[in-house]
Amino acid sequence: MSVRTSGPTGELTGELTGEPRTEPTGELTGKVALVTGGSRGIGAAVAARLAAAGATVALTYVHSEKQARAVADEIEAAGGRALVIQADLTHPEAATAAVEQTVRDLGRIDILVNNAGFLTYGPLTEVTIEELDRVLAVDVRSIFLATQAAARHMTDGGRIISIGSCFNGRVPGENFVLQATAKSALVGLTKGLARELGPRGITATIVDPGPIDTDMNPADGDSADFQRGLTALGRYGEATDIAEAVAYLAGPGGRYITGTAIAVDGGYTV
């Protein structure tokens, strides 16, 4: 099999990687956030950052309950509250169930961060039906279903934030057709959501990461020099860079931003 598919991107942050915790800001106090794929990498960094801003955070994982619990423990050690949910988003019912459990256990949902996804690459001619279905199930269908479920509960001020990819604006070479297809679907979805949910005071946005140093795409990996060379800054970003953008969009600063994508890519798409 030439198409290589991995799980939700990332690594743990804060105490778990030796990085300093983000100081609490209180901007999201009283809010409840659900972060899919929140057990590591970008998702873990987002969960920790939203909790530092005062939100109660639910986070999903697929296989590693231990990693998810470590993220939750770090949030709670800092005085926050976290809920861990097992959710295999390749199954259609899982995304909706995660939202409903969040509302049931935490009382509401104000912020949905659609982070779970697969880093996928390989020749177009060798992509199998199974690989296509798996990527679209997680990177497109689960986002649609989670958003649909969350929209039933959100009130004015709700935020729907999806983690996209720099491939939304630029495909630098071959072997990325499936990844680019899946992530580009978020653009149409987000624009449609902005129009439909805007009258209810709910925003919909995308954060498009560039090369981010995670266990799935390490800054010392085989393709790292190539990826660095595609950025204007000449370096990888950190998971916390994406988390900061998400926190901004989830907070007061994001109240008039909707239907668009924010590139956090070091100039990858320049």
From TrEMBL:
Checking SMART domains in the record gives: PKS_KR
UniProt keyword Glycoprotein present: no
Highest taxon of the lineage = Bacteria
From start to end residue, where is composition biased (Low complexity)? 7-17
From the UniProt entry, list the residue stretches annotated as the region Disordered. Answer: 1-26
* Keyword annotations of the record: Oxidoreductase
Identify the Pfam families for this entry: adh_short_C2
All residue ranges annotated as the Ketoreductase domain in the record: 31-215
Q: Which family does it belong to?
A: Belongs to the short-chain dehydrogenases/reductases (SDR) family.
Protein name, per record: SDR family oxidoreductase
Species whose genome carries this gene? Catenulispora yoronensis
Its taxonomic placement starts with:
Bacteria, Bacillati, Actinomycetota, Actinomycetes, Catenulisporales
